[in-house]
Specification:
2 copies of one chain form a homodimer. With 345 residues, chain A is α+β, with helices and mostly antiparallel strands. Chain A has helices at residues 5-21, 27-33, 40-52, 69-79, 87-97, 104-119, 172-186, 191-204, 209-222, 248-259, 261-269, 319-339; strands at 56-57, 66-67, 122-129, 135-144, 147-154, 157-165, 232-234, 276-280, 292-300, 306-314. Chain A folds into 3 domains: 5-79, Arc Repressor Mutant, subunit A, CATH 1.10.10; 87-130 and 227-338, GAF domain (Beta-Lactamase, 2-Layer Sandwich), CATH 3.30.450; 135-221, Heat-inducible transcription repressor hrca homolog, domain 3 (Enolase-like, domain 1), CATH 3.30.390. The first copy, chain A, contains 12 helices and 10 strands. In chain A, the strands form 3 sheets. In chain A, strands 7-3-10-9-8 form a 5-stranded antiparallel sheet, with helices on both faces. Chain A has a 3-stranded antiparallel sheet with strand order 4-5-6. In chain A, strands 1-2 form a two-stranded antiparallel sheet. In chain A, a hairpin with a 2-residue loop joins strand 5 (147-154) and strand 6. At the A-B interface, helix 6, strand 4, strand 5, strand 6 and helix 7 of A face strand 4, strand 5, strand 6, helix 7 and helix 10 of B. Chain B binds a DNA duplex (30 and 30 nucleotides) through helix 2 and helix 3.
Chain lengths: 345, 345
DNA sequence: GGTTAGCACTCGATTCGCTTGAGTGCTAAC
DNA sequence: GTTAGCACTCAAGCGAATCGAGTGCTAACC
């Protein structure tokens, strides 16, 4: 036995209905609400076939059927109608992002809350992540008598600044001179490379050994990951509106997962290159999320870094809606980040 | 009728028990578990009195009594035994903060998660907030051909940096010269004052008008609040472990509240000066939190800024435990921030 | 007078059985 | 191949019965 056109149509109707209502759908519902010109009995036979094929599950014998992960997969792959999103939603998105220039963190926080508000699911936004950034400018800014701020500008943005200790009294001109020398020497290199170059400089500039040592330590500490990325999350509470999470225990494990941002980031980030990803239930690879689906899209900045936006919702998700929202938002962010220069973090 | 010593002891036992179990406590429980040398009948009489005095509520006639907000107030004010916290918890706290230097945001994120892990409630940490910071150094760091990073160091830390557009090609020496002039002129002034001084400078330095205009816009935008403070939250999912929140709808409103960080910050921040605050139920002034309590403590940095750490939990909270944890954590943070120079953010 | 044993009473929670109704699977007729 | 019809299943909803924790009151006791 295999899929034919009619089975397809019936399956689609079942999925549509289930996504809408969240309750198992029966044969009568399909034959009445979606006029197929078939009686419930016929639908019943087809549903029985669809179950055998693995597209439908039956919670118990006298309930309707619910779509399986396999069904959703088929749905997003081929039979989903990619609905045009209503204009007002779209307007909301762009209205929120035109206007004044933003900080990176504000932008992604905001993006997360807009996405979650529009989709009514949980949204996650990861900041742009580049390859090894290359240094462009190094500057030491005096903060107090004995401390200076290290500001490193790279081609992908600034490395999170932090203070280092200054050996003795050093006026701002001296610091500037050292900054120039450092910039000269380190420009175009990655942080890791800088860590190899610095010892040589320390040899040559004995008089500033202490300062440079401090800088070396600073670089060494963050050469691996320029800074722990700021993960923006929005609408975690939305999940509680869905009957799937009326079980408190389930809700709790979900929320705990949302709290461990590192783990969350790695789940969302996925394998990377795909512009659009839909992972359904078990496909997420996360045991806690067997009845969740994750949809992600990417955006990029002028300097070619890629960021990820994602939505987490129940497997019974309004995939087409979510995908079009993510699509719009992805473009919006890409626009925003290529327009201005807000690649700093 | 008024409170006597015995009533006090009974009330304390009731509160202790209720905090522990979360179920209404009956007279028999008290007379058996807490050996008062009194029969349940006597306790019953006393409980009846306590109810009349407004310290106890009775959910329904055949259930035990639960402490009222008034009772908790009395409890934290006078009859709570400030338990020594177990050593391992304390160790956990300090272990997490010794070691390498941290970024401000990392520290407060971390503090929130440690507090929530120790208390099993929801923790909120607000970054240090000073009065009007005074500028110390202004420096423009070239980022690209047509953009520069503005770094403003104030007596309380750095103002969140951001880029402004550069008019034409400007080399780093020119930028440095301008930076020096700006520093000269603006040192010691608040951001708001700077906004009044700048127009004059623009008059005098016509050749850099465009750049200075950009800077002016930059300052103007953040003179009110140097930057939207980063609020760290931990353990929101902990709340779901308490029967108080087994009602999904309740949980949802609580979580939504936790998501609006601005509102949350203003709730936690409170009136400010008190080193220790305990607000019980209605005292929080937030309708959504009538059955929550908020305990806050403060910490301070070397430059005298004050930050707030807080715990939100059910009114039936382990107040003494929470207070001692906040106390320790407050000291820990104060130590950390006065030891190093991590007043930048 | 304070304390306590005893008892009737209340009322939420639990259990049990019954009914209802949505939905299925099968069969026989079209 | 489609459909009407029917027996069957089973979760959910409902109400009565039961249970038990806990109270308030009274009368006896120290």
């Amino acid at each position: 036995m295999e899929m034919d056109d009619r089975k397809m149509k019936i399956l689609q109707a079942i999925i549509d209905d289930y996504i809408l209502t969240g309750v198992p759908v029966g044969s009568r519902t399909i034959s009445k609400k979606y006029d197929m010109g078939l009686s419930s009995a016929t639908i019943r036979n087809e549903m029985s076939d669809l179950e055998e094929l693995g597209y439908l599950d039956q919670p118990h014998v006298s309930a309707g059927r619910i779509p399986s992960a396999k069904a959703y997969r088929l749905y997003v792959d081929s039979l989903m109608k990619t609905g045009r999103i209503r204009d007002d939603s779209l307007e909301t998105v762009s209205r929120h992002f035109t206007g004044r220039v933003h900080q990176m963190e504000d932008v992604i926080d905001h993006a997360a809350s807009v996405i979650s508000a529009l989709t009514r699911y949980t949204a996650v936004v990861l900041p742009p992540k580049g390859k090894q950034p290359r240094m462009q400018t190094v500057q030491l800014v005096p903060v107090s008598r004995d401390a200076a701020l290290v500001v490193i500008v790279t081609d992908t943005g600034i490395v999170r600044d932090s203070t280092i200790r200054l050996p003795g009294d050093m006026d701002s001109d001296t610091l500037y001179a050292i900054s120039r020398a450092l910039t000269e020497e380190l420009r175009g290199h990655t942080l890791a490379e800088a860590c190899e170059i610095l010892p040589g400089m320390i040899q040559r500039m004995r008089e500033n050994e202490e300062l440079l040592q401090g800088l070396y330590g600073f670089l060494n500490e963050r050469k691996e990951s320029p800074s722990r990325p700021h993960v923006a999350i929005g609408g975690t509470s939305n999940m509680l509106s869905y009957p799937e999470y009326s079980d408190v225990e389930k809700a709790r494990t979900f929320l705990s997962l949302m709290e461990t941002r590192d783990k969350l980031a790695s789940i969302i980030a996925g394998d990377g290159e795909m512009a659009f990803t839909v992972r359904i239930g078990p496909e997420t690879g996360v045991p806690e999320m067997v009845d969740c689906s994750i949809v992600t899209a990417t955006y990029s900045t002028r300097s070619g870094q890629q960021g990820t936006i994602g939505v987490i919702g129940p497997t019974r998700m309004q995939y087409s809606r979510v995908m079009s929202i993510l699509n719009i938002m992805g473009h919006q962010l890409t626009d925003l980040f290529s327009r201005g220069d807000e690649t700093n973090e």
